[in-house]
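Listing S7. Sequence submitted for prediction.
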Amino acid sequence: MQITIQIGKNGLTEGLIQNLKNMFKKHDDARVHLLKTATRDKEKAEQIAQQICATLGRKYTYKIVGFTIFIKKWRKIPASIK
């Protein structure tokens, strides 16, 4: 099961990051939608995804499709990240 979170005009907040951390205690995948009020710039979307994964830790990777960020939690750290 995948969890879904939306990022709006407030952008990345400490509450959003804390909410993601709590959700990853039970789930391995998350989907983060970037609303129009957050950004419509691909580079900014990439920066947001990098900030999220840097805050969460090394066990997390991301993939961006359109303006949706898919975040995966790994049980073991992938070799490409080490």
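Caption to Listing S7: primary sequence and predicted structure tokens for the chain studied. Residues 42-56 form the longest helix (15 residues). The mean pLDDT is 89.
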